[in-house]
Each structure stands twice: as C-alpha cells, then as structure tokens.
Amino acid sequence: MTVDNSAQTGPIVSDERIRDTLRRQIERAYNVDRSFSRATLSNESGVSVHTLDQIMSRNPEKKRRVTMEDAFSIAQLLGDRAVSALLSTIGYTARRMDEPDALQPMLIAATAMAHLSTIATAAADGRIDHTEQPRCQEAADMIIATVLPMSSAGRQGA
C-alpha cells in the first residue's frame, strides 16, 4: 500500500460546497421564512440579482464562482444560522462579538460538585455539627452562585 505524502493541490473547500450551502440558506429565506425576496436580498446585501440567480441555479452552465465577499454579505444578512453554515464548510464555528459568553455547563457541574463534596463529607456521619456548619454554609452559597446563571432566576437578570 502506498502512502501519498504530497501536499494537497486543490482547494480545501470547493466552490460547489459554498454554493450548495448558500443555496440552502437562501431557499430557506425565500420559501420557509419568507424573510427576503430576490430584490430585497440583492438590495440589502449589495449582491446583484444576477449573482443571486447564479448561486441559486442548478444548471452547470449558469454557475459562476462565488466570491467570499458575496458569500459573507449574503450570509451576514440572512443571520447567524447562515454564517454558521458557511463557516462550517471549513470546520469553524463563530458567534457574534457582542454575544455574551456562553455558559460552560461542564465547568459549572465540576465546580458545584466540589462544593457539594464539602457538604457530603460533613454529612457523612448523619449530621452537620457546629464546627462543620460554617464550611457547609459557605459551600451551599457557592453552589447557589455557581448554578444561578443556569436557573430561571439567573436568566431574568440577563
């Protein structure tokens, strides 16, 4: 068996994949969401109707290479789903710069378990005495503070 160690000479992502991804997102905007018509998408994205028609065409003779400027102009206008779909063709994900940091559920769980362990250790003998109570109270406060962002009470302040 021969191993090919040569460098890749073709593109990482084909124009066809970009076109298919955009076509699906545009079709969704046209037919499902009904958020854009050809004219409004063209006007608001700055991409000509002719170029939109080329992207939407399934006829190989009418297809032209999609520029990244056009692809991202269209995707940005269509919204986060379209931008993510376009970026996923190269194995990337993104979020808006003004979007708050996402919750990290595994970190929340690990942090809460550490504090729960304090309470479990103190309660192992079936009761929490006066010497264990301050540590347990602090641990309980930390558990509440840790899981609050995931709760409905924490979401109300966001």
Gist?
With 158 residues, this protein is an all-alpha fold. It is 58% helix and 0% strand.
Tell me the layout of helices and strands.
Elements: H1 15-32, H2 38-45, H3 49-56, H4 68-78, H5 80-88, H6 105-122, H7 133-147, H8 152-156
Key attributes of the depicted protein:
about 160 residues; single chain; mainly alpha; 434 Repressor (Amino-terminal Domain); elongated; 8 helices; 2 domains
Largest sheet: none
Total helices: the number is: 8
Assembly type? single chain
Low-pLDDT residue intervals, each spanning 5 or more residues: none
Q: What string, H for helix and E for strand, traces the elements in order?
A: HHHHHHHH
User: Which band does the percent of strand residues land in?
Assistant: under 5%
Broad shape: elongated
- CATH top-level class of the largest domain: Mainly Alpha
Helical content (DSSP H or I, runs of 4+)? 55-70%
CATH architecture of the largest domain: Orthogonal Bundle
Give the CA-CA distance, first to last residue: 58 Å
Question: And the CATH topology of the largest domain?
Answer: 434 Repressor (Amino-terminal Domain)
Overall number of strands? 0
Q: What would you report as the Rg, rounded to the nearest angstrom?
A: 26 Å
Broad structural category: mainly alpha
